[in-house]
Amino acid sequence: MKLLTIDTSTSTCSVALTTGGKLVSEYLLNLEKTLVSRLIRAIETTLDATGVGMDDLDGIGVALGPGSFTGLRVGVATAKGLALAAGKPLTGFSSLAMLAMNLPWSAHPVCPMFDAKKKEVYTALYECRGYPVPIIADCAVSPEEMLKRIEGPAIFVGEGALVYRELIIDRLGERAMFAPPSADLPRASQGALLAGAAFSRGDIIPPAALVPRYIRASEAELAKRKRDSA
Prior knowledge:
By secondary structure, this protein is an alpha/beta fold. It folds into two domains: about 1-95 and about 185-230, Nucleotidyltransferase, domain 5 (2-Layer Sandwich); about 105-185, ATPase, nucleotide binding domain (Nucleotidyltransferase, domain 5), CATH 3.30.420.40. Helices cover about 35% and strands about 30% of the residues. The chain contains eight helices and ten strands. Helix 4 (about 145-150) runs parallel beside helix 6. The longest helix is centred in the middle third of the chain and has 18 residues, at about 70-85.
């Protein structure tokens, strides 16, 4: 199966092309620049470099979140537009599970973390003996609350783990381990494995039903709720 996989759940823009689970090409850029222009350029570069056209694809996968509200909207909207234009099936996957995939066959549970701002993290706890299996489901919580839920040793990965490294060490001590810097960026090539598994299960999502999984309300939604309750 020839898949185009997209991730824009953080400031990292990543696009991968895989064939039969084998990575053919991956574009990854971790810069604070306009996401829309970066993503379109990344897709064009990936397809042009491999000589693959949209008609050659068998499907499109995209990270659904949690993560940046703006980033997720851009990634999901782009994936939906491409799928509709080319008539290709769509599927989605957890961006935290994708990040946890950077540490396969780990001896200890993996705790991916994105900085959600407002003193919170998007996080989860996965057993990574193959595809990630959630021990603690994707959530948006304070890092202190998440650390209370972790009973044994865990491996922390992601930019959120870097932001709260001192706190994690203070609370867990020797039970806290950290992934190497090369593993802290989410990669579409890992998401492609999750997308491929989803397609093999028949988990195809109609474009109209494909929406980001924000987990928590946006600023606009919180403001509206405040106005409505006033």
